[in-house]
């Protein structure tokens, strides 16, 4: 449960008020994608269950299983992150 650990760390970290905007942008990005990452154990189970079955692969030509996990960021992520970071750097300087 690395995602949960990350979210808890981000949520409960003692971050100065100046850094709150940066933390919020990062937490929103992870939260938006957490449901997709939660599919990993199920997909791995499906792949492992194929072992020892007639899955269409051979020793000479093994079946290759590919699965892509899209990690999407909102269209304005870069702008929001840059703004938050710029605000943070301005505040601490």
Please report which band the strand proportion falls in: under 5%, 5-15%, 15-25%, 25-35%, 35-45% or over 45%. Answer: under 5%
Task: List the uncertain runs.
Answer: none
Mean pLDDT: 86
> Could you state the order of secondary-structure elements as H and E?
HHHH
Percent of residues in helices: 55-70%
Shape: elongated
- Rg is 20 Å
- Total strands: 0
* Amino-to-carboxy terminus distance: 37 Å
Instruction: Decide which structural class fits the backbone.
Output: mainly alpha
Q: Main β-sheet, in a few words? A: none
In DSSP terms (H or I, runs of 4 or more residues), the helix count works out at 4
**Integer count of domains:** 1
Task: Indicate the topology.
Elements: H1 2-12, H2 20-37, H3 40-49, H4 77-92
Please, could you describe this protein's structure?
- The structure is a single chain.
- The protein has 93 residues and is mostly helical.
- It has one domain.
- 59% of the residues lie in helices and 0% in strands.
- The chain contains four helices and no strands.
- The chain has helices spanning 2-12, 20-37, 40-49, 77-92.
- Helix 2 packs antiparallel against helix 4 (77-92).
- The radius of gyration is 20 Å and the shape is elongated.
- The chain starts with a helix and ends with a helix.
């Amino acid at each position: 449960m690395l995602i949960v650990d990350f979210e808890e760390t981000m949520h409960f970290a003692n971050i100065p008020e100046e850094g709150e905007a940066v933390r919020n942008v990062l937490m929103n990005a992870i939260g938006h994608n957490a449901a997709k990452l939660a599919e990993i154990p199920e997909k791995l189970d499906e792949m492992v269950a194929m072992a020892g079955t007639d899955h269409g692969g051979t020793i000479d030509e093994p079946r290759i299983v590919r699965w892509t996990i899209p990690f999407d960021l909102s269209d304005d992520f870069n702008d929001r992150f840059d703004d938050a970071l710029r605000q943070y750097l301005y505040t601490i300087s």
